[in-house]
Hints:
By secondary structure, the chain is of the alpha+beta class. It has 6 helices and 14 strands.
Amino acid sequence: MTKENFLFTEDELKNMIEITSNFLDKTSRNLESPSKFFGNILEPTSYIEDHGIPLYKFIPQEVYQNHILKGHFRLGSLKYYREIENESSKDPKEGFSNIIINSGNRQIFTSLISGFDQYVFCGTYTLEESVYMSKRFGGVVIKIKNLRSFAEKIKNAIGAQKWYSMKVTYSDFKAYKVKQLIEDLNGVGPDLSVELFHYLLSFSTVPSVFSKPARFAPEQEIRLSFEMNKNTKRKLDICNKALLKEIELIK
């Protein structure tokens, strides 16, 4: 937390985030850290829910034949995508975010991991990069015809509390800046006040779940996330043939 009447500039924040990120990469033995960071520090208007966005999914033929046509679908936790064996899909920063809170004449900066109670279902909202996506994920393309209906069926099947759909934003900084007056600044560190904890929980979920490093930008990803009432398992495989009514084979 800064002293009174002192706020970091955007460049200073980016430098601090880059130093913090590189430190965390080294301590976790992650060698994927980019030599130069790209992107912006995001604000609440960067994330907009829109259930009318199309969702296309590129998958291998064998997955379509042996799983999708039988009503089998997989939801992944953020931990699952941090550790997935497919190196091109692995994102060690999945769930990680930097939160900057402008509180009156002070600024609070924190790095954290959130989204432990979320399952995600990933797709793309455009077919503009079909060649690229087919090479990475598979040549079969399915479309979710009605995103709301599809999500509601999954929500009910797995007992989720709520669901969200948003386009993913891309920035190596994975930083989110908000304005919020914090009354109990005595709880900034090392022990969080209840007030600050709840604000961090509220602010961190969206950037932790719906923001990825810039190298993933060609995917133009849209995500469905399902909020559970407890921490998730690493992955969740479900069988629900009613979901097939929401699927259209494109290619």
